[in-house]
């Protein structure tokens, strides 16, 4: 488990994250166990990160972060309630923006992965990323010669961190359409015959055992029982077989795709 060794500053966001340097020498955006979304948001973040890594999606490294006792005094002086137990840290992407221009999006070397991101969000029932907000998106665009899109702030997978075994099982056959300004910005780079087919195939190719394995060592303090994780893995296994039908409902937003009989 990584140790937070230096507090840097607070960051903007609903979950009230903080920037810290950790024992591996890297900076992390840390969500505390006391964050306003609830402690299970940390489990959602880690599950999403590990699944994304299996699919080679652009998500920053996620780590369990322990806040060293020497930092607790700093937090108290700053007026923050740390909360007990382990926290979640996402590797900090420097020189980036969460409010990219259309030109910055279009120049990303991995812009084609937008199809994978949309498909992944549908698979994980993410009700948050498709929006466009004046104060920042659930993506980052790193700036430089090899600029790219990064997926961040994934606490709202499973339709939010307050999911239950019953709600995720109900979601297996329930279609929820997620479409909005951010996804619409991706259309010119994805439009064509079957834009989501390869992304769906990659998810369907994952062994069922992997879906359970990635949850095996989540901290118990994050409030998700083993039985709940087994149910969640089963629901994810089932949901992926509905992706083709669900994403077909987006065809109306893609002019070239729509024109193909």
Order of helices and strands: EEEHEHEEHHEEHHHHHHH
| Terminal Cα span | 53 Å
Please list the strands of the largest sheet in the order they lie side by side. 1-2-3-5-4
Number of domains: 2
Main sheet? 5 strands, mixed, barrel
Tell me, rounded to a whole number, the average pLDDT: 94
CATH architecture classification name of the largest domain: Orthogonal Bundle
Please provide a written account of the structure.
With 261 residues, the protein is α+β, with helices and mostly antiparallel strands. The chain folds into two domains: 90 residues; 164 residues, Phosphatidylinositol 3-kinase Catalytic Subunit, Chain A, Domain 5, CATH 1.10.1070. It is built from eleven helices and eight strands. The radius of gyration is 19 Å and the shape is globular. The N and C termini lie far apart (53 Å). This is HipA family kinase. Keywords: Kinase, Transferase. GO terms for molecular function: kinase activity.
SSE blueprint and pairings:
Blueprint: E1 2-10, E2 18-22, E3 27-31, H1 40-54, E4 62-67, H2 69-78, E5 87-91, E6 96-97, H3 102-106, H4 114-123, E7 139-142, E8 148-151, H5 165-170, H6 181-190, H7 197-204, H8 208-213, H9 226-239, H10 243-248, H11 255-259
Parallel strand pairs: 1-4
Antiparallel strand pairs: 1-2, 2-3, 3-5, 4-5, 6-7, 7-8
Helix pairs in contact: 4-7
């Amino acid at each position: 488990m990584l140790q937070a060794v230096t507090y840097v500053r607070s960051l903007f966001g609903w979950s009230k994250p903080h920037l810290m340097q950790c024992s591996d020498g890297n900076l992390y955006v840390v969500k505390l166990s006391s964050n306003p979304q609830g402690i299970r948001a940390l489990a959602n973040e880690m599950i999403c990160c590990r699944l994304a890594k299996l699919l080679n999606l652009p998500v920053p490294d996620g780590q369990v972060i322990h806040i060293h006792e020497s930092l607790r005094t700093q937090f108290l002086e700053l007026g923050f309630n740390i909360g007990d137990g382990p926290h979640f840290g996402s590797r900090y992407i420097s020189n980036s923006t969460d409010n990219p221009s259309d030109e910055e999006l279009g120049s990303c070397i991995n812009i084609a992965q937008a199809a994978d991101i949309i498909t992944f969000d549908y698979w994980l029932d993410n009700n948050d990323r498709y929006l466009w907000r004046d104060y920042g998106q659930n993506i980052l665009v790193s700036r430089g010669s090899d600029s790219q899109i990064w997926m961040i702030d994934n606490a709202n997978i499973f339709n939010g961190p307050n999911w239950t075994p019953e709600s995720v099982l109900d979601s297996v056959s329930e279609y929820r359409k997620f479409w909005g300004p951010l996804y619409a910005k991706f259309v010119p780079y994805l439009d064509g015959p079957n834009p989501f087919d390869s992304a769906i195939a990659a998810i369907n190719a994952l062994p069922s055992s992997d879906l359970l394995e990635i949850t095996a060592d989540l901290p118990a303090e994050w409030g998700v029982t083993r039985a709940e994780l087994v149910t969640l893995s089963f629901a994810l296994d089932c949901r992926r077989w509905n992706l083709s039908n669900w994403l077909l409902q987006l065809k109306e937003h893609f002019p070239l795709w729509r024109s193909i009989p």
